[in-house]
Amino acid sequence: MAKKIAAAVVVLVLLGVILVFAPVFTVREVTVRGTTTLSEQVVVDAAGVPVGDNLLRLDAAGIAQRVVQIPRVREATVKRRLPSTVAIDVVERKVVAWIDTGSTVLVDDRGETFADPIDAGPPPDAMRIEGVAPDDAELLSKAVEVIAALAEQDVAQHIDHLSIHGPAEFVLHVRNGSTFIWGAPEDNRNKALAAQTLLGQESGQWNISDPTMVTRR
Fold this sequence. Notes:
This protein has helices at 2-21, 40-47, 60-67, 137-152, 188-198; strands at residues 29-33, 73-81, 85-92, 95-100, 104-108, 113-115, 127-130, 159-166, 169-174, 179-183, 205-207, 215-216. The chain is of the alpha/beta class.
């Protein structure tokens, strides 16, 4: 019995050696999915997959870690697909706003900021924010909540920019020339509904800080 077990172990070891060194499992292809603004080549270059190495000995975690160093990438998953493919799936950050500091600083839907690595500028539907520093995480988090509420009511597309004069002094500048005084970043859904209604009104300066009692100056 002992001899049979030993023989089986030897066979398994030999099979393992064959799998690890067999040319059929050489990396020949790298695929990328999930990109929206990034090119696949940018991801491939960052991944640094050693084409020609054995697929089974590949450091998948290391490759994923290199890919998430791309500022626009939030998550990366690397899988081996036999016999010779490395598949990289990425999730890009969703850019909802931007800050002009002389260069473009992008803001994602979590309120996190990052530089634009491909120098493509902000997406056309991203809202410009004025009066906040890129490192003010708390204020940016509140700004993103306001933008999300506006987007849910299809109002965000009508806003030229959001200016912040203090923690409770948010002001929306509408493309039609109106100004919506938002006040504190709270009760955002009801304020967004009020803003939606005012889009059909004559332009002017509207105070919606209390959405139950909208006033015009």
